[in-house]
Amino acid sequence: MKQFRKMTYPYVLWISIMVVAPMLLILLYAFTKEGNSVTDFLFTFNNFKRFFVDSVFVEVLLRSLRVALVTTILCILLGYPAAYYIAKCSEGLKMRWVLVITFPTWINMLVRTYAWMGILQDDGIINKFLGLFGIQATLLHTEFAVVLGMIYNFLPFMILQIYTALTKMDGSLLEAAADLGANRTKAFMRITLPLSLPGVISGITLVFLPAVSSFFVPKLLGGGQYVMVGNLIESQFLTSGDWNFGSAISLIMVIIIMISMYITRKVDKTEVMEKRA
Amino acid sequence: MKRENRAFSHVYMVLLVIFFYAPIVYTIVFSFNAGRSLTRFEGVSFQWYAKMFKDSNMMQAMMYTILIAVLATVISTVVGTFTSIGLSRSNKIMKNIVEQINDLPLMNPDIVTAIGLLMLFSAVHVKKGFGTMLIAHIMFCIPYVMLSIAPKLKGLDPNLCDAAMDLGATPIQALFKVIVPQIMPGIVSGALIAFTMSFDDFVISYFVTGNGVSNISILVYTMSKRVNPSINALSTLIIVIISVFLLLVNVVPSIIGKKKAKRA
Fold first, then answer.
1. Are A82 and B13 in contact (CB < 8 Å)?
2. Which H or E run contains A159?
3. Residue A110 falls inside a structural domain
4. Which of B24, B88, B246 sits opposite A115 (nearest CB)?
5. Number of inter-chain CB pairs under 8 A, A vs B
6. CATH code of the domain made up of B60-232
7. What residues make up the domain containing A271?
8. Integer-rounded Cα radius of gyration of chain A
9. ipTM reported for the complex, 2 dp
């Protein structure tokens, strides 16, 4: 069956050009400054220096991290009970619930985020409801709106990941714990929670990563003044045309994402180890 | 105490469903609004639908979105299938290299993939537009197709193919009559994922397009700066299309399955 191997070769060529080359281009641009001609690249760290020296850019980075972190934590807190509830349902109901949770994610994110613009407006439905209690709040174009939009977009992914981990769990473990005298809280803390952690971890990946790099949620719900790293990169590439600086910013973002993923996995591992010890 | 807990969790799930579906319902309701307002409902009218169908930008974006999604799905499914089969017969090093590189667009934030492609296209002086958008979509769809086929190939008995060839099948016959039918469920689900990924894509399309070519996501993004209720009509149309699509995918196979079961 060795002849089938050849079917892989065209794809190897394809990904070398379409996946590897673009990554190398980002690296190349991030560490060079614009020369007079396309072919002379001058090595420099200035793009990175420019980012970290200017407090405005650092502030944008910190804001993105803060928003992504808050979104991720809220998604865990809101998603875990939902996933737990679905996992405890009967088989038929489970599938129906999964369908109910996934259905909105099939509809274009831009379309769904746009709908929130109407809902959150000053004379929108939420403010009308709050008005009944004599409260008026500016919701649109605030950080609250951005976090809300992100939770709205990414929460289903968190629920599904935790749900999958929970359904994989062996139910007899809980019976054993009950037989051995553990109450429900204890059984949950010692068995269910640690066993569902891998689901939480992959949920974090699916929420934190798009949240930190998102640029249409902050633009639509945060307004033009609300800038996150994604918006910064967008403007470097599409308005100011500084590809070197833009590449450097995206490289910084990717490195931060990689570090945070590494830490999350490490925490997961050490916790499992401690539980075992 | 226990019953109270139950009631509380039911209420929580209902609130969650409201949270997920309110914006969708809101969009549909306001697409029939007689006024321009996005917050005050002033009576039923179909004017925004009429405006949408007359708006050449919107109709064009709709056409581009569907055309690119169909083309990207077909091409990435075919390429992904044959590459996956080839890969299952390759050595470990080859497998590892391809899997690692495939992971890059899956793990990288979309915006990073997008700027990489943008710089690639301009480095080789390709004019941005329909072609670049299609190529980009094919590029990010193939890994999803391969990811959904891989488990099916793993479960495949390698001797099956050899048996077919021992019995006189040419390698191509063995490929199409033995391997492909066996991994068909994986191919179909891969194609579905590819279609929705392409249909919904915003970030990558936004960066690699040009020449006035835009898909629905780009259109909504650029139009959202001003109040335009036609967006609600367009959104409702998309919601209807996706719902019908999902219904067909979920219900039709089970109905066909039942019919077959009855006949058998």
1. yes
2. helix A143-168
3. yes
4. B24
5. 201
6. 1.10.3720.10
7. 56-276
8. 23
9. 0.89
